[in-house]
Amino acid sequence: MPQPPLIPYTELPLDGLDAGRVEALWMFVASGPDLQRVLPDGRTDIVIRFRLEDDGETLSRPRIVIAGPTLHVRDVPAQARTGLMGLRFTLGWAGACLGVSPKLLRDRELLHEDAEALISAHAERLKRCRSLTELKRQLVSTGQELLLAARTTPGQLLAVEAVRLLRSAPERPDLKLLCRQLGVSERALRREVIEAVGVPLRSLASIVRFHRAMMLMREPGARPSVVAAEAGYSDQAHMNREFQRYGRFTPAVPMQVPLIGRGAPPSGAGRNVQDRCDSRP
């Protein structure tokens, strides 16, 4: 029997979705039993799980999952023919679009009725899809309608701007300076970030720094001691600890791990690593 094609983590065209509020439309199909390592990145995704048939286009048994932001690395089992297609919200936008605070979704996956309840007007259309082409079209349509219905608040928009400044900072984020730039107290900013993003402000800053360091480590001739300084760590040992904490690997491993968004500048780092990677440190 022919095996279904492997489709490693692949980002698809957004097809008109607002790139400021939707970070990625993505797909992954496993070629055999394996573990998919998912790194913490603070994002929330609408994910459709399905079984891909031998022709590489027909799918069956689509199921909806809402994957909330996480602070922990995890290895997810993936069976042959298992496929995933997802819509990843930009940091700070999931709650406004789904109508629920991401802090209630932290370190959780909503399944079945719980997931469908958040996108009730779209769930049946997504579950009726029987091809990759149809599923992508319906997921884009779902995203467009959720974006149109998004309910923004001043606090959520403040959190979005804080995230933008964190990700564009050339070095270790200075939270006191960030608060001065935004004209708010640190307590108020912490409250708005955890409400809009779902993870604490300092944890988010650490995750952004970790992804920036991974991007820098992939540059030709990258030296860990130099990368540690550029990414904003106090020293190389500090970076090593953070890599073990968020990835369970050493800074040398990203040279072999397929890192999504490699072509983006370091200030745009922060995307997840969805491809298979060696679980050995």
Automatic annotation (TrEMBL):
Residues in HTH araC/xylS-type domain copies: 160-257
InterPro entries tied to this protein: AraC_XylS_family_regulators, DUF6597, Homeodomain-like_sf, HTH_AraC
Keywords: DNA-binding, Transcription, Transcription regulation
Annotated region described as Disordered, given as residue ranges: 260-281
PROSITE patterns: HTH_ARAC_FAMILY_2
Pfam families: DUF6597, HTH_18
Keyword Transcription regulation listed: yes
Record PANTHER family: BLL1074 PROTEIN, HTH-TYPE TRANSCRIPTIONAL ACTIVATOR RHAS-RELATED
Name of the molecule in the record: AraC family transcriptional regulator
Organism: Piscinibacter gummiphilus
